[in-house]
Amino acid sequence: MPVARPEQQQPRVIAHVDMDCFYVQVEQRRNPALRGQPTAVVQYNDWKGGGLIAVSYEARGFGVKRSMRGDEAKRVCPGINLVQVPVARDKADLNLYRSAGSEVVAILASKGKCERASIDEVYLDLTDAAKEMLLQAPPDSPEEIFMEAAKSNILGLPSDASEKEKNVRAWLCRSDADYQDKLLACGAIIVAQLRVRVLEETQFTCSAGIAHNKMLAKLVSGMHKPAQQTVVPSSSVQDFLASLPVKKMKQLGGKLGSSLQDDLGVETIGDLLSFTKEKLQEQYGVNTGTWLWKIARGISGEEVEDRLLPKSHGCGKTFPGPKALKNSTSVKGWLDQLCDELSERIQSDLNQNKRIAQTLTLHARASKENERDLAKKFPSKSCPLRYGTGKIQEDAMKLFESGLQDFLESQNTGWIITSLSVTASKIFDIPSGTSSILRYIKGHSPAASPAIPDSSSVPEDPSLGDVP
DNA sequence: TTGGCTCACACT
DNA sequence: CAGTGTGAG
After folding, report:
1. What confidence tier does A285 reach under pLDDT thresholds 50, 70, 90?
2. Which residues of A are catalytic?
3. What superkingdom heads the lineage (predicted)?
4. Does residue A118 reach within 7 angstroms of strand C, measured from its CB?
5. Which residues belong to CATH 3.40.1170.60 in chain A?
6. What CATH number is given for A313-431 in this structure?
7. Residue range(s) occupied by CATH 3.30.70.270 in chain A
8. Regarding the domain delimited by A14-19+96-241, which CATH topology (the fold level of the hierarchy) does it fall under?
């Protein structure tokens, strides 16, 4: 559930940058013949043409949606190009997109605090950079600055294309006295420049929102897509939120948003204003209640984290319907594959980023054959993570067996597994300075204290070989 | 077949 | 702390 954070006293300049149909762009860069064409990226072509995970804007024009299957997309857009996600170890392999995302992050991190929010989104805190610009090149004077800012859509201003530049100019001039708007304008200029750099250096376009907090920046980053940006002046916030459907707000897309509609009759964020803080707290608890009260007023103190890398690595696969796994042998086979990929990913994280993961977690979904016990869930299990593909595979299988025992509760009915995943988490930087990474591992890694009751002491796996 | 595969986070 | 649930894209 969302939680309210102590608010910011000083105005910040926050940007949310969102890559346009990112997987499609990655594939278009790889195969330029796809540029400008209706294109979608699909995974697993066998069942109904595979599921779409990204759709180009040309294809969207034909009504192609992300929730469609490949077959359906072909129906509404016969000329669509369907590109398959790469497959490795018999599963979708997203590494191509992960590394493309890293290219983008590396550029966007150059102007301020940068938080990788997902494979194709980042938040930036540009407060310092914007203040700096305001001191050195106030955006009232140089014509060039206007031209840059003119690339933005300004929320609350008419965004008639031919009038856009004039509108921006009017906004900046009118706001002579408004320091906060000027900071935002500088932020918009910086973001416009960053987006140009991203395009030049990666060939990818992106869209962005610029506002005084993360919530507002995120809300508008997708408002003008593709390859555009939108600014939220404080003066336009209340009108904007007043008519915003609750479900559009981040965190309100699910059950909480439904509850607001069904239980309180709240249809827009503006509707929230008629409830007292106390009423909202009574309904949803003190944390969520105050959070709701604040967002209705455009207040969000959430900070941009300084983090360019993910906090966990996971590999998973589903086995729907007839593909369900029915015995330990097939589970072991798939688990080995998933662990192989996971091992490779954490190993490269260690080599490239000097980070080490401490926990291995196994998730599964299961049903019991013939029986009506659909409610019962397969429990997640975790243990200290030992590096080395063989060890991870071994530990993951032990976690599975342990979870299966709990799941079956000593009954001996048949079972089927419909999804499996392994995750490496609790990732820490290895203290730099001493080059003795291996000694660090010896002293601090779980390898020194295996949590899995280890009956079969395993021969040493030399897979740390490429660490200096 | 609740689109698949990832991620993050709050709660207990 | 390990494990559960929600939510996002």
Report:
1. very high
2. 121
3. Eukaryota
4. yes
5. 22-87
6. 3.30.1490.100
7. 14-19+96-241
8. Alpha-Beta Plaits (3.30.70)
Give A116-152 pLDDT, tens digit per residue: 999 999 999 999 999 999 888 766 555 555 556 667 8
Task: Say yes or no: Cβ of A287 under 7 A from any atom of strand C.
Answer: no
Q: What is the mean pLDDT of chain A?
A: 87
Beta strand A152-154 pairing with A39-43: unpaired
A421 touches strand B (CB under 7 A): yes
Angstrom distance, A122 CA to B2 C1' = 29
pLDDT at A164 over 70: no
Residue A1 confidence (pLDDT) above 60: yes
| Residue A285 CA, nucleotide B10 C1', distance (Å) | 13
Walk across the sheet containing A51-55 and list its strands: A51-55, A39-43, A81-84
A22-87: CATH topology: MutS, DNA mismatch repair protein, domain I (3.40.1170)
- Positive or negative, the Cα torsion across A60, A46, A84, A87? positive
Residue position matching structure tokens 């796996």 = A461
Residues 299-338, chain A: which have Cβ under 7 A from strand B? 305, 310-318, 320-324
A53 touches strand B (CB under 7 A): yes
Residue extent(s) of CATH 3.30.1490.100 domains in chain A = 313-431
Q: Which of the four pLDDT bands, split at 50, 70 and 90, describes residue A293? A: very high
For the four alpha carbons of A187, A190, A195 and A196, in that order, the dihedral sign comes to positive
